[in-house]
Amino acid sequence: MAAAGDTRPLALDRHGWLRPGPGVRLAPSPNQDARPGSVDPYLLVLHNISLPPGVFGGSEVEDLFLNRLDYDSHPWLPRLRGLRVSAHFFVRRDGGVIQFVASTRRAWHAGVSAFEGRERCNDFSVGIELEGTDFEPYAEAQYATLAALTRALRTRHPLRAAWGHEHIALGRKTDPGPCFDWARYGRENGWPRRQMPPGAG
Asked: Domain span at residue 177?
């Protein structure tokens, strides 16, 4: 499910890395660190990203997370200069997935955020970036990979909720946006409504 036509399930090893296979690539990011108190993540956070905005298929997102982005390659990119961010996973439009940070480690994806009254969601969450924007439907292949990835993560970690970046960073972030089908995602992955954002499903 990590690439078109690939029906094999995704799986995480004991260190929190996906097992390599078709459509799965590991690209360790330096933008990560240990979770405080070795907490086992219990929140899944969904994002979207495209660089430059609205452009799909390039290497810019990967380059950003690996601190090697060519800021001069597009007029929009210099505003990201010096930014040090990452996510655990990046799901491309074709369903391919790149993992940047082990799920047992803290990726730098949520920023100023809160969930159930607890701040600093990076400490206790796993972040998945979907290649996309707030204004375009996500691809069928992305939903398939997201489902496979969600199953793998729920097998490995005690995840009890899946929220969007927009829900944990109210007024600051808008992703994954109105084009993400929360009802479908919940149905395909067995999330009860109480485990998804208010109004989802």
From this structure: 24-57+86-195
- Residue identified by tokens 């360790």 is 28
148 within domain boundaries: yes
* Residue 65 within any structural domain of the chain: no
Q: If you ran DSSP here, which 8-state letter would residue 49 be given? A: E
Whether 31 contacts 108, CB under 8 Å: yes
Q: What is the pLDDT of residue 3?
A: 47
| CATH code: domain of residue 131 | 3.40.80.10
The answer to whether the Cα torsion of 98, 174, 52, 139 is positive or negative is: positive
Can you give the pTM of this predicted structure?
0.95
Hey, is 168 helix, strand or coil?
helix
Tens-place pLDDT, residues 133-161: 999 999 999 999 999 999 999 999 999 99
Instruction: For residue 144, list its beta bridge partners.
Output: none
Residues with a catalytic annotation lie at 129
